[in-house]
Write the structure tokens for this entry.
Amino acid sequence: MAERTGRELFLGQGPGAEAGSQNLFVNMGPAHPAMHGIIRIFAELDGETVVKADVEIGYLHRAFEKDCEAGPYNNAIPYTDRLNYVSPLINNFAYASAVEKLLGIDVTERCKYIRVIMSEISRICDHLTCVGASAMELGAFTVFLYMIKAREFLWELVEDVTGARLTISYGRVGGVKADLPDAFGIKVRKAFAETRQVLSEVHTLITGNRIFMDRMVGVGALSAQDSIAWGITGPLLRAAGVPFDVRRVQPYWAYDRVDFEVVLGKNGDNFDRYLVRMGEMEQSMRMVEQALERMPAGAINVDFEGREIPVDAYVDRGKQGKTEGLLLLPIALSPNLQGQGRDAQSRVNVHDKTVVLPPKETAYGSIEGLMNHFMLVMDGYGIRPPAGEAYFAAEGANGELGFYVVSDGGDRPYRVRCRPPCLPPVAALPRMIEGQMVADIIPTFGSVNMIGGELDR
Amino acid sequence: MDGSAILARLRGRLGARVLDTHEHRGDHTAIIAPEGILDALRFCRDDAELGFDLLMDLTAVDYLRYPGREDGPRFDVVYHLYSVGHNHRVRLKVQVEQDAATVPSATSLWPIANWLEREVWDMFGIRFDGHPDLRRLLLYEEFVGHPLRKDYPIDRRQPLIGPHV
Amino acid sequence: MGVGTFFTSKLDEALGWARKFSIFQYPFVTACCGMEYMATACSHYDVDRFGAGLPRFSPRQADVLFVVGTISHKIAPVLRRIYDQMCEPKWVVAFGVCTCTGGFYNNYATVQGIDTIIPVDVYIPGCPPRPESVIDGLMKLQDKIAAGAQRY
């Protein structure tokens, strides 16, 4: 970059100030409307063409990896929510699966199907946000509004299951927080009908649109070989024609029991990436519908040794999926903690003190109960994986999301590493935009789908 | 290719420079001596049978507080490799001492190693020989220290930096 | 109170009413709260009915700075600069608990509340806050705007 000061550059003085044209240095700084996250692109321009670009990241570094080392294994789940915050369920489950791999346990069948269903719903939300935001930056504001409308329907589904819209903390090591609610299949069908309608409207609006195609076709292309050398996975690699999808080549959870197509592109340019994302949304909806049909009944959680915890052992109605009308129940708080369901607890709970929290009366009323509660909560529910390390790869919305967990035999993770799927495309961004024009940076950066939480961790 | 066959092929090519191999929970790992790591990575990438063309991840672990490794080399630089053609994975590790924390850079083999090594430098302070542009990736230049080391407390405060160009 | 004061106070009221229903926000979006900001701004929860539907993506043209999402030490100087570039009268909304107090990121990388850097008018806690919370915060901001411009 230039050796001369800003003032010299502005006044046309200093070294390199000969007559004739000089290259312009433009800083698309961290706070910029067309940047999906905060990132800095420092570009050297010759007229409108980008000669050289340098990308600076790290503006959202929140010390995820260091924070995870502080607490027991389940404490890292809220931090993983905020990694890829548009598809948080995939992060939760991928982390939980990495720890389960380290423990050497396998979750129940029903839990695997639930994980597939919720991951795919999350993936649809991510693609909707990405395509909507890119389209808005190209001027198609209607597409953005339609897609966010569809995302609201999906978030209502997520809220029904997990209790929150965005940062859900739904996964647990050994299973998930609670079962699917009763009428979930009907709600899914309604939400998907709306989403399919939105997708078909968007296709009508922009897929054949002359302006959209002019701005996206042939722009930001990266060949398959370059993409692999740059470590790019996910929709960007599939748009270049490489059929690498972790769900297909190294299936996990219940992905080998649902049928889906791996959507491929040809040229690896922005338009192909858009088509791949639109196709993947349809495939995800197919997967959810199949999983709902094939899902077995039964237990959803296992304890730290892999034994199933039966469904009727959960006292909480919400955890069994019976969430209908929960909001309308009158709440009677008892000042002396009677009526906290102590009888019900002892009838239906698993008689294993090392796994289940004692009833509140016992916890507050007797020393043994208090110690039991204390030991379970402070000692991490007995999750102590034997010393070792494990790497688990899931297909995140942007590519391979890997969690590398190192354990020292204690109850806190020794090291948690998240392999961010959007780091390679952003690292390759200068390669994608050099030689293109300034206005091409916008759709290219949009199609990379950089999520700050995941990139900077 | 089966994991143990991959490790055997590595041993066959590198001989004594493969210090250890093991398999844990389905992951196959090889620990390579520091002087042989670049050869090992190049062999993994270029060999037709192995064909590890995708560098999935390049990270490091600080074993300062690990029971059983208090005297041993402090850092491990970990490479996760994947082969798109053959659909297999391997993990390579290099053990690095605290006082001579340098490793040859893999930037010549995979361009993504550029940013991944910058992040390891930023977080752990391990230098990479031959890296074209080793500066911080996630933190700012005025930051003092390498946060992911075990002796860096998580809530250490840094002085606020002012607005500058 | 004379006639002059009557007209001044009525004028202030009218100005306050006009200002509160024509909010040009600068959304300084960094993290997950940005998703809820998008949801609030779009058709389902629709912040446009409050006159706040047009984000101005330049601080020179905006009057309310919505700081949405975690502020790290690396981006803090940029935030300060953006705040300085805005013209009076200006207000600041701290959207999300990371901007109010740092959230659960009590570490070396996160600013523990943006009020350590810039003055804040309305704090909207939540991680992320539901759109209803955001609208509540916006209405409180409107009361504050109607009451008069800030004088520091």
Remarks:
- The two ends of chain B are 52 Å apart (CA to CA).
- The mean pLDDT of chain B is 90.
- Chain B has three helices and seven strands.
